[in-house]
Amino acid sequence: MSASLPERWRWIDERTRADHRFLRPEDHCLYFGEYRARCGWRGGPINDLIADFKRSPARIRESAHAPSVERFKERAIRSVARARRTGFARVAVDTQLTFVPIPPSALAGRSDHCDRLLRARSLAFAGWQADIRPLLRQSAATVPDHARAGARSSFAQLLAITQLDRSQLDRPLRPVVALFDDVITSGKHLAVATYRIREILPRQAIISVCIARRVRVEPQPEA
Question: Which of 180, 167, 168 is nearest to 207 (CA)?
Fold first, then answer.
């Protein structure tokens, strides 16, 4: 069962920024909880929620309990949406923020494409005057970093396939762009997104909003 998220944000600060090597001192990143790497369900309720939230369409289809797994995913999306709605003042959502989801690794139209970030954000602010735009996209599908058996993609490799969709700039962005991702690990995806936006709009204010930040847990010695 997916966990409920806290209602209050936390900032990544000088004590925690070193855990995310692509974040610079001038970057501002909000998160709700901590995801414990390589701990699975033993990592706690946030790990459970992230596992359900990130579950791919392919894994759901392959499961012998697909309807139940799909319900868990939908529950996780609703949980994230509720937290988002309570975490922002309506006046900020209606007038000050443009929300931009980090593009998924599977391209739109592919059988494994997952639009969980866009859906969670849209559900969070249903009935409000939120500005939610898929401003960024990938030109090629990739294996998600968390699913790679070997080395993860580099900043340069990700930058090469990440594009800004200029058709989404048919009207001005609001004063602050809020990049939205599920888990911040190294901060690479957020750094690439910031780079691409500031190529076109160098003065644009940008913050990042994540469900959780990854924390490394040292293995416990056997008794």
Answer: 180
pTM of the prediction? 0.88
Q: Collapse the DSSP code of 82 into the 3-class scheme (helix H, G, I; strand E, B; otherwise coil) and give the result.
A: helix
Quote the tokens at residue 25: 């001192």
| Cβ-Cβ contacts under 8 Å for 178 (sequence gap 6 or more) | 97, 98, 99, 100, 206, 207, 208, 209
| E strands, the chain, in order | 10-11, 29-36, 97-101, 131-132, 136-138, 162-164, 176-184, 205-215
Instruction: Indicate if the alpha-carbon torsion angle 120, 48, 184, 114 is positive or negative.
Output: negative
Terminal C-alpha separation, the chain: 31
Contact call for residues 161 and 191 (beta carbons, < 8 A): no
Amino acid in position 40:
G
**Cα–Cα distances in Å, from 169 out to 10, 136, 172, 174?**
30, 11, 6, 11
User: Which amino acid, one-letter code, is at 15?
Assistant: R
Give the model confidence (pLDDT) of 147-176 as tens digits: 555 567 899 999 999 999 999 999 999 999
Q: Are 201 and 173 in contact (CB under 8 A)?
A: yes
